[in-house]
Amino acid sequence: MEDATHTCYNTISVAFDSDVLLDKTKFSIPITSTDSKALSPISSIQTLLSTQSFYFSIQTISNTENLPINISLQYQDTQTFDYPNITTLVCNRVNVEDFKIVKVSNLSLYNAMTIGLSCQAPPFYCSTNPTSRDNQFAVSLSIPLGYQSIPSSTGIIKFTYIDLELTIPAMDTIFPWNVTNELNLIRNIRYFPPNNTNYIETFSFQAKKIEQIMMFDSPLLKSNVLYSFKFKSSYRMNFTTLDIKLFSFNMFNKTNSTDISVARTEISVDYIRDYQISIVFFPTFNIVLKYPSENSNSQFKYATEIPYPNQFSGYINSQLPDFQTMSSLTVESIFSGTIFNINDWVFEIYDFQITSVSSFTFIIRISFSTNYEILQLTMNSNPQKFQLLEGTPFNGTYELSIYNNNINIYTFSFINTRGEFKYLYNSQFYNNNLNSTDPYLSINTSDTLSPDDFSYIGFRRTTMDLSKNEFSNTLFFNLTRPLSGILDYIFVFNDPTNQSPTFKTKFDINKNLYCIDFNVTSKSVDGPVRFILSNYQNMIYSFDLSNFTVNIINSISHSYQPEITSIKAFPSTSINTDGQNQFQLGWNVTILNEPLGFTFGTFEIISNLDSLPRVIKVNEFNRINGNAQNGTYTVYTTIATKCTSQNFTIRSISLTDGVLQYNPLSTIIGTPDESELIISLICPTILDTTPPVITDFSVTPSVKVYSMDRRVEFNLSISDVNGSASENGDIIEIPSLSFSYFDGISATLNGYSDLPYGFGFNNITISIYGIVDNRLNYASYLTSDLLSIGKTYRIFRDSSVVYPYLVSSTPILSLGGPMGLFGAGFSSYKLGISVLVDFKDGKNFQPINIDFLSNVYFNVTLPRFFQSSIDVQIIRNGLSSNILTVDVSDYYYQEPTTTPNVTSTPTTTPNTKTCPGNPICNNKGKCNLQTLVCECIPMWYGPSCASEIIIIPTPTPQPQPTSETTYVFDSNNITSVVQVIAVRELNDIYNVVNEYPIQNWTLTIADPKLITIPTYYYQTQLGNTSTTLNVTIEFFTNQTERQFGGQNITLSPSSIKFSMSIGRYQFQSKTNYLQVVMAATIQGSDGSCSSKSIGSGNDNNVRWIKMNIDKTSLYGRFITYGIIDGNVRTIENRLIDDDNETETPQTRTTKVGITIPNFDDSVLLDPDFSNLIDVNNDSNENEICQSKKKLSNGAIAGIVVGCVVAIAIVVGAALYFKKRAKYNREKLKMSQKLERMNNKEN
User: Fold this and answer.
1) Which 3 state secondary structure label does DSSP give 475?
2) Which of 65, 195, 530, 1016 is most open to solvent, judged by the fewest CB atoms within 10 Å of its CB?
3) Could you tell me the sign of the dihedral formed by the alpha carbons of 94, 100, 103, 107, in that order?
4) Residue 390 buriedness (CB in 10 A; 0-12 / 13-18 / 19+)
């Protein structure tokens, strides 16, 4: 169809047989043609004179009759050759009769987005919005803020497309209003920052984030409104922004002809902050530099390096978006020159196939030969992951999977290691056999959902009364026909004020209905719920289903955001320290959040010399005054004894109450509290400008990137000659790297990182960033630096063995049916391929037939099964893939809680640690990143799936809640004891304020006729309180599934489960905790070695403990949540140090305090224990042996920096390190509290 200029664009491939090489620029369309046409050559393939193919773009002008247009070609050289009427095409003109309105819906509130179709409806602003259905648009009307009236009618609405116009009649508006009404449509509530504010930017660089906010209330709409605009478009505020001086911006070439080439980018600036550098290569890398490489004379130098192939010739550009400037490096291949006999690029495509494997998924297979390896493959300029199916990188077949995002035409580009491009277009002859690519990628339109496909639509509630806490609902629907891919559809609110997550489609196999559970928030406005059903290809709008609606009533329509009303520096805005004692500084922040109340937030504190933020989490335990609706919270950070004078401020704030719609600091700008935002710290002047240095660095020399074991281990030694690398300071917790030695002057760190499957290109290079001491002296060691000092600077990328690898699957139902799996390394030949499925029915993994197989995708047909998930594994010629767990999309209705999720426990920092085992989970399970415990395949147990169960005798009941078991293994008498030993009340800094010895237990043994598993009930009271503690001990002889807190928990055979409940308890303070202390001990009669290992996440919350006597072990699991006052909430499992414990080669003991936040009525807890025998020899921590004593991590002071390794064309590893001393902070808090208590007594 034509565009606005009545022009159509087409492409065509034409092949010629000629005795000479043709010039594509000499082709044209004859001027004698009756229609206006233009010809543009795009590409050609001319390796054979007899099949010279050319790919042209043709532009034609539409005619009013929509008649076919004949296309002829002409070649003009020494003579003219005419090729008349080689093809015909039709360029359809849009006529008046084709432009018409089919249907108009009622008006509703909508978020406007402008597209090409224009409309006018004065005095309203009018804009159009596309829908998923062809030629259907949603129209949005808005009126400027401050307009004095809203008419009762819209007036005629006029639409324009190119030179065509049409109108629709006037419509009644929803909320007519004028200034004479007694009830205003809106009224102003708050406005900030004030007009004429003069904001002077600081090193926190807030200017671009500051907005002026107008808050309005609408009694008529029963909602409130936030209107904001950035300072750049504001004439009501004056801004003075910081002028960052860019002293230098350069690129350098570091080349080693026998090894690697890297491009180095360096910038020197006068402010420390995060700087983004975009390095334009293949692909473009956006690198955020968080730490300088050095600092001196008030200048900070940042540097980074990326490797590139030695064959590459061309430009590498670095761009600094903050400065809108660029630096370029001209790179010449080290193989250039006659001595290397460089050849031109020879690239030939043998075959190109597109296979549709689902409605929207395609497998593309390309076979080609090349004398230079392909560095990158893109489709429509988007880089693609392509996997070698067979052959070599120089003569082979590749596959990739494409999820079609409504792609019609496509362009593939192939970039080789020399930086040269080849292109492949749709409908193009791509080889001398004149094979042609497909004209387009076409989705199966018969599988596209439309409103006519619904045979039934309904809601669990047609009216949601929010005053009755009806925040949850379910959409039910059924279809008139089977529709593959229906489970890919999600439910999302079509409402700019409702930023809820998406909700998935499931299927109720009992009712034969599709179901989508969804929740609205207290911010929802009265009226119909506007939603979209989408699979990211196709969208069904709720206004397409106008006869099936659900309405919200009685909403408080809370859309106010948490608002900072006051911020005061603590202890003051200027602090002098003698450098002898650590202390705290920060702010007391008052947060207004009516009516729901503030729950959780984070503050990032930076300084003018340290841009790595100190992240402070704020919740009810930080509140020192007021309540959740209007309270004051502490935002403090600890300063080390050895410090440097600097200024601190707040860089960013996140306050959880949905999606924050403005910068919280905007409320402080222009008020007296703005002067409180910077705290000046003055430390003793000590001349120390020498940064720490690397004394040793080693790393795994090679890694098989297509195997199941892709772990890279590091060992890094650092020294600071002035002793500034003290134990004080903040910690940056990155997985798997920890101190093994630290003495205040030097440190040794070791750790590991598991690389992604197929990581890298040729070599994996390493760079180390962010080495910094407490005097804020910085250092970094990039790839070329490590090379120059003779340290390890790269990892060999071994791609010789390719294991199959599973990534994801299509949705499945327990009814069975097709399941597609995506990944890599599958092969395309079924011989030697086995697909195994564990239906979790006790039969372990069973083979299943393959319906379709390619290198990156296969599908199978599942039988009926009865579990909520299955495990899948593929084996190719004896090489086993990872195990992929696939959850079913069956619908199970659970009665929702009666209150909205506004008081839920705040989310914690995502776990960047991983499960134990080498390889992870010892290839006998998969890692659960939430619990950091391996989910093992049957017959394997323990944190790393390296153990088997020891069948123990049934524990006998004891007078107190203790499980004691003795068994014999390898002539060694092993005794394991688990007991509840104490309950303690802790204050907000975890000091004990009350401790209740456990005594006077009442024991009840369950009747075995009623309860088949051995069960013992214990009950006692805590001291002189009325609080009851109940402990239930159960022994499971067989594997059992239990539910706790809505999650399934698998209990292994011969496991012991402790269930504990605590009744109402009178806390001394609302900020205090209650802690249940458990002790676990393993003892052997004649052991040669004992060891202990602990599993915890970034939050140091204990997930599991494992204590060994030689190969036998006691293994305990601690769940990081409990049921508190009827709701699932996070708890903290803390290790408890006991100096009186004796650790010997025959005995190990661990105490864990299950720490519960303040509660009102009740608590339920649920740990479990089992006895194991180790089969795989995982490394044991803290091992004590009879012959020698080995403490591998006995004096760990904290976790430091992490390591990240990147592919050969991106910077490699990043090791940021600083260190936290939690003990010192708690000691400081305690001393301050004692000082306050003494002051009160005096």
Assistant:
1) strand
2) 65
3) positive
4) middle
